């Protein structure tokens, strides 16, 4: 493992005599975190944290676990149905309040969707091998309570199928199948505490000339008869390069992230948030360190009110990430503790340098080592406001990939006059 030097941009808080002036940022050296190798199998790393402290990462049909706060990782044997693996398969994980692990995947590629559960941290599994038969793709699962669990997959690769379990994943009932073709590039399922709706962020490319590609929100109402999707709500953000990320804070605030063109000719990371399940949105200014260069594969995490983080690949070069043939990319983590303020204060760290050289792209039009990370990288902020990040690196000479992880305990900037954190 190699320690990577990090410079954090920490805001200087003005004295009361200068109240009303815009605070200035000054770079402050901070001890570097140390990235940890999770494993060498799979990509599209998706991270989940159990109430008992166990961390899980699914990477295609591989599953890894850590019981020591991410210091070391073990690749689990996994269910027998996950033994047929290729780089085109998909998976998703979730952990319910009773520490039951839910793992869903298709096998083989574009085949049956299975859902498996484990009550012993992935040592043994109970599986429903054909929750959705036939050709399926890009499944997501969510286990928010001890009574209700949800599953979404794309039947025939495009038509949305929504399923509901009331027995902790033993049996699943298809609430509905989509009445037509839907966009297959979707993000994770979310449910605001106390709500009966299930939310999912998705990339809507549009089919009519007047339609503008946009990041939108599907609203599922599993307890109501009728259409599988009760509403499609606009976020006001453009579509990102990779699959979209979204997160709910402890206060139920919904956060989404994407990329938009910046003045330098690259792409900035930009966020929006909603307190009413996407009916209305507030858009943030772009993350300041992305107003030049190119950010891509953005993924958002949220914790206590105002505590938000974004992981992304970044290069100082400007352009479409899928066409930057000579660019070298790093992994960055941007974190703020006042995200809902008019001008959030961001701390931005370079987590790992030189993770890939050349274009980065996602989804069906992408192949070869340009798709080394699959379709997304992820992050979360746990119940203790600790951030957990996972991403991919590539050996430039062999083009072999490795899953990486980092745990970051961020702290809000000091509000004491003249002091730095």
Structural key phrases:
single chain, 421 residues, mainly beta, Neuraminidase, 2 domains, 4-stranded antiparallel β-sheet, globular, disordered N terminus, disordered C terminus
Secondary structure layout plus pairing:
Elements: E1 6-11, E2 25-30, E3 36-39, E4 46-49, E5 55-59, E6 62-66, E7 74-75, E8 91-95, E9 101-107, E10 112-118, E11 126-132, E12 136-142, E13 149-155, E14 159-165, E15 173-177, E16 186-190, E17 198-204, E18 214-220, E19 229-237, E20 245-248, E21 254-261, E22 267-274, E23 282-283, E24 294-302, E25 308-315, E26 328-336, E27 346-357, E28 378-381, E29 387-394, E30 401-408
- SSE series: EEEEEEEEEEEEEEEEEEEEEEEEEEEEEE
The level of helicity is under 10%
Strand order of the largest sheet: 3-30-29-28
| The CATH architecture of the largest domain | 6 Propeller
CATH class of the largest domain: Mainly Beta
User: What's the total helix number?
Assistant: 0
Biggest sheet: strands, sense, closure?
4 strands, antiparallel
In whole angstroms, the N-to-C terminal distance is 27 Å
Structural class, please? mainly beta
In the predicted model, the low-confidence regions spanning at least 5 consecutive residues are 1-31, 416-421
Please give the number of β-strands. Answer: 30
Explained architecture:
With 421 residues, this protein is mainly beta. It has two domains: 23-41 and 241-411, Neuraminidase (6 Propeller); 77-239, Neuraminidase (6 Propeller), CATH 2.120.10.10. The chain is built from no helices and 30 strands. 47% of the residues are buried.
